[in-house]
Amino acid sequence: MPVLLLLLAGCASKPGVNQPAAVIATPLDHGLGAKGRGILYHRPADQSPRPALVLIHGDRGLTDWEKEQAQRLAEKGYVVLAVDLYRGKTAANVMDAHVMGRALPEERVMADLKAAVDFLAAQRSVRREAIGAIGWDVGGEYALDAATRDRRVRAVVVCYGRLKTDPRLLDSLRAPVLGVFGGKDEGISPQTIERFEAAMRQAGKRVAGLHVYPTCGHGFMDPSSPEGGAPPDKKAIADAWDKIESFLAADLKP
Amino acid sequence: MMRTALGCWTAVLFLPLAAGPAAAKVKTMETTIKSGGEEVKAFLAEPEGKGPFPAIVVIQEWWGLNDWIKKNAERLAAKSYVCLAPDLYHGKVTDDPAVAGQLAKGLPHDRALGDLKAAVNKLAHMENVSKDEIGVIGWCMGGGYALQLALNDKRVKACAMCYGRVVTAADDLKPLNATVLGIFGEEDRGIKPEDVRKFEAALKEAGKEVAGIHIYKNAGHGFMRPSNGPDKENPAYNEEGAKDAWKQIDTFFAKTLKGK
Q: What predicted TM-score, i.e. pTM, was given to this entire model?
């Protein structure tokens, strides 16, 4: 049984129009020795079951930026579990991020994410048939991976995460996919995005949109990302959020 | 009885060769590999002579197919292996960690694995290659891919992975058909010695051949690469460790691919 630790509402939130989120840290026990963890964001005032999201950080770890995004989505009416794949650590620079990110055993990541879905599905406040996943950077890759392994995931948002180009690897996917990319990303080429789209089509899966923002680099939604390579483009960020929120609302909200 | 006598005789015959200048003459060239519908660039380093020689797929770090990786291919070719290093980034190479990170994170795994299998395929069809003696080596990102290639291609008989991503679940290691050599640094802040030990335990639990899993003291991630010098972002180079690691690698491939 996972142990819940309820922290006082508001400690990770700024006051907004909505009620402040409660924050719950939860060890995700999946029998691989080390226990996973996450932070749960939700509006305690909401009474009826709501859609939920597993939110997955990039290779710098669960930073304040990801926590703000979890807060933001909770304010939109989602129960959000922000997982912490690094178990409390964050990377100080791109070199550290590389060393830490590359080292994560994939099976542990996948076990953490399965445990996260288990956790959400067990909440009385969550509509079990309305669980999605969103991730940035390597978190985007993991969101897609998790959705190919877990049919309970009904919507995936990949923000500049690694894609698949082989349709066979997408066969098991149930969720439609929304993708957001920077045109100046050094690693995700337009060709890769095209191939992903073709592979999704071949596998008979739904792409809700693959949006490339030409002025933006990798990591562009997070203005503190050292990888953007360009000044933050506020318009692009706002547009990306519009796309994400419309997609999630259409696919997860009743 | 006959076989033993013949074996001894062969060994004696080869002895003067081994004692003489060890390095074979090496030819290098840029080549291409057919991978899916694409022609992927690759660097080939091969010993002179008809062979057939054992062969090794050489896998780049997150920087791309740079001079150090080519030099490593040449180094191994001088020990009489045909070495093929595919350009997994399809033309990109960098020495900027911020760019390398994006390249590594953006590379579709299935495309990379396809290119690597295509490299094995190319080697297996070369006249100077003994197709039952194919191995793989990789560093950093390539260390992880070396293991993934060995897990996905049964033609790979020897897998040397240098500080690459490990697999710690025994079930996931079942498809492996290669003997494994692991080279890791104790100070690697990512792949911790405890994860390496879990990997080793999982290999044994899955009943796989392990030639050795070495964790070097005072060595961080990337410790075999001389340009990770003291004034660099990642000052991990450890000369003594690197020397020993190469010795382990040479012994490993000689044993697994040449039967020596």
A: 0.88
